[in-house]
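During the reporting period the student researcher (J.K.) took over the structure-prediction task from the postdoctoral fellow and processed the backlog of single-chain submissions. One of the processed entries is reproduced below for the supervisory committee.
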Amino acid sequence: MTAFPALLRQRLRRDGVQLLLWTVGTALLASLTYVSVGQAYGSESDRASLLVVVMANPVIMLFRGLPSGAGEGAFMLFLIFPFLALLAALMSSFLAVRHTRGDEEAGRAELVAATRAGRRAPLLATLVHGVLANLVLASLIAVALTATGLGVRGSVVSGLAAGAVGLVFLGVGLVAAQLMRTSSGANSLAVWILMLSFLAAGTGNALGTPSTDLQRIESSWLTWLSPFGWGEQTRPFAEDDVGPIVLCTGFAVVLAGVAVALQSRRDLGGSFVPERHGRSEAPATLSSPIGLVARLSRPSIIGWGVGGLVTGILATTLAAVIRDIGADNPALERIMQAIAGGVDMEQGTVVVFFTMLGILAACCAVQTVCRARQEEVHGTAELMLSTPVDRARWLASFMVMAFVGIVVVIGAALAGAAAGLASRNGDWSLLGDVAVTGAGQIAAASVFVVVTAVIFVVAPRLTIPLGWALVLVSMVLGLFGPLFGFPDWAVRLSPTGVAPTVTSDGVDVQGLWWLLAAVVAGGALALGLMRRRDLAPAG
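J.K. obtained the following structure tokens:
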């Protein structure tokens, strides 16, 4: 244990920038949401009328929290809490895998285990590191909400609830790292558990029982199977119940204990879920760099494609529902017009969902290009480049597959949107809007391919944190910027904010030329610089 402080300091130093982005960004999202809610739903009657509509259309609660009344704070948490908890969960699970299975893959864990630190101290340091990160996140959320004028108790409960969900997924990440052989496999397992938990909480709320005044929902039993549901049951600014926070913390302790027990029963580098046996003979597609990159990226691209399919289905099936809601709620109509450029409610719904889809496609692209950095760190890039494959061609393979991933995600969304339109008794009036906005988001997401590639070439150590940070910033500016009242020039800094889309005056393609110019220039810059860059496995 004498090595424990040094290991903890190493983790804090290594993750300093990433955790700053995660924690401050999450707290800033909470603060900006309060401002936007105050602007759009300034009166309690506006908030109460929207909750009545929500009770009549419970599918909306699949992506929102648990209604607990029309009070300012309670209503805001109904809108934003699932996303605060989602950010905490992603931060925690990635942190857990990065410092456990990720270090084993890179060979660092073996070096540390050879010292007097042993095998257990690194896991405990990672656990403490994750707990501290969630405490900081909870504190910043509480401070941000208190600074807006909301009650101190409700603000503290809000922060602790989000942090407690993060602790659960810290434990999930630690267990996944013991079960899976690779860090990508562990991250995939943790994310799938996260998404299933998120949907279970939303479904449990949608199946719940509304109160007689239609201002509150009593969740069904399904919600209690999800850590997200536990966090929502705290009902900040309404009941401020800390019991679910204790439940989350207790479950996180159990998961941490399971991770420690599993580690003690396996060899370093081993796993409980064995790797699949490969073919006795490699397929012909693996004879080229792009074939290998396609094989490595296929699972993640399929996963993002499924997300695109679901988003496309929701875009068109919910359009009519949101149109009816807007007819009874002028505040919601103003919000949709602010985000979507003044078009009618159904068109606005398509624009908003496909802007979200552009973010999903950008995530797929960034993850694919970041894999080049992982290959470089693990030493497999050096093996590839020892063959007759030059550096530019090697990087171009990742960039091409990133573009393919974008097309797959958008294509799946277009198919889902068409299926949603087919269910509307032959009403295909939104088909043109779907096609235009989908094509526009292909151009927007492509910018992230070349930007991440340039970062990889110029500052390889910043590839993963900075690439994902730019996606987060783009989401805040392009998706929430109009809602938060950001100036037009700030919104248009985001590729998703200038992508071709449907407006009240027709189709706006002005931003398309800037996006295409950025893609061509960025791609040429990345490949040109890559020809002169040495491999940088350590930094």
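The committee noted the following: Residues 406 and 442 are 6 Å apart (CA to CA).
J.K. will present the remaining backlog at the next meeting.
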